[in-house]
Amino acid sequence: MRDKRRSAKVPETFGTGTKRAASPAATGGTETRASKQAKTSEEELAKGMKLIEWLEDEWTCPITYALFVDPVEAEDGKVYERAAIEEHFATQPEGLTCLSPVKRTVMGKRLLPATWIAEAVTKMVETGLVDAESAAAWRRSKLDMVQVAALKAKAEAGDAHAMGRLGFSYRDGTRGLKRDAKEAFKWFKKAADHYDPPAATSCGVAYINGSGVARNHTRGIAMISRAAAFGSEHACSVLGWANECGHHGFDKDPEEATLWYKKMQACACKDSVDVYRERAAKWLSEHP
Predict the structure, then answer these.
(1) Which superfamily does CATH assign the domain made up of 52-130 to?
(2) Distance between CA atoms of residues 234 and 268, nearest Å
(3) Structure pTM?
(4) Tell me, what's the pLDDT at 11?
(5) What would the pLDDT profile of 18-38 be if each residue is shown by its tens digit?
(6) Ramachandran region of residue 5, left (φ > 0), alpha (ψ -120 to 50) or beta?
(7) How many C-beta atoms surround the C-beta of residue 86 within 10 A?
(8) How are beta strands 71-74 and 79-81 bridged, if at all?
(9) 152-200 pLDDT, tens per residue?
(10) Residue 235 in contact with residue 201, Cβ under 8 Å?
(11) Contacts of range 165-173, beta carbons closer than 8 Å, 24 or more positions apart
């Protein structure tokens, strides 16, 4: 008798070497799940990007429109970059209150460090969540702040060179500082009193020009003479030029001009610029 089990037809989908056909429903279901997962991931990513954009806006100073480096919370409830809000206070009438730069209402001038915001912004930048341009600007500002803090610490400890560098930073508006002639003069004078040659020269020039201090030619020339004695090349050039042209209360004295121009070349502190060196060289070539 024929074995029916052997003669039974084997379905093709289970035959050896054949591939089982997937049902349309199963295929469609798999694609739908993958599509849903991809869509969910895209939505989550979009939400994350919106959150980052919102945080970046929230952690931007309303005065400078730059990411916070040294944020402080003010009495108007807003957070500002310390240097920016302090500059705003300086433009307001003296007293314990002023107008808020954002709300335009009366506010006190007390500031509290917003340390957690500073730390959060640092994390955002370090993890690459901020656009390249904003991150680069933040890093420059952060470096400026660190450098100024280091200079101030050294200056307050009596370092004449650091005092002078602060003076130049305030005079020229570098290292993230705003130009401030009075603050520049203050540091130049401190450095000059500690025998820093270029700072003493700049202090003398400030006296002559009335930059950050009342104009006083006598004190200016006295300070420049001190700077020349300290070994300032530029101070010697100023004295040479004053004697050459009869400026700053000097009468024309070719011999004195030659003396000071020669001293320029021997100065240890090369703090002058090419235009003054060229003037001295031209004079000396004509007055050997």
Answers:
(1) Zinc/RING finger domain, C3HC4 (zinc finger) (3.30.40.10)
(2) 11
(3) 0.71
(4) 43
(5) 444 455 444 555 557 666 666
(6) alpha
(7) 14
(8) antiparallel
(9) 999 999 999 999 999 999 999 999 999 999 999 999 999 999 999 999 9
(10) yes
(11) 167/191, 167/199, 167/202, 167/203, 168/198, 168/202, 171/202, 171/211
- Quote the DSSP letter at residue 74: E
- Cα 249 versus chain centre, distance: 41
In the chain, where does the domain assigned CATH 3.30.40.10 lie?
52-130
Which tokens go with 205? 């020039």
The DSSP 8-state label assigned to residue 38 in this structure reads: H
- The stretches of the chain forming alpha helices (DSSP H) are 4-7, 24-58, 82-91, 115-126, 132-156, 160-172, 181-193, 197-209, 217-230, 233-245, 254-266, 274-286
CATH 1.25.40.10, the chain: domain bounds: 160-286
User: ∠ at Cα 231 (229, 233), nearest 5°?
Assistant: 115
| Closest to 142 measured CA to CA, from 191, 81, 228 | 81
Please enumerate in sequence order all residues whose Cβ is within 8 A of that of 198, keeping only pairs 6 or more positions apart, or say none.
164, 168, 227, 232, 234, 269, 271
Strand-strand pairing, 111-113 and 71-74: antiparallel
Looking at beta carbons, which pairs linking 166-171 to residues 24 or more positions away fall under 8 Å? 167/191, 167/199, 167/202, 167/203, 168/198, 168/202, 171/202, 171/211
CATH annotation of 160-286 = 1.25.40.10
C-alpha 129/C-alpha 52 separation (Å) is: 7
**pLDDT score at 7:** 42
Instruction: Give me the residue label for tokens 């890093």.
Output: 139
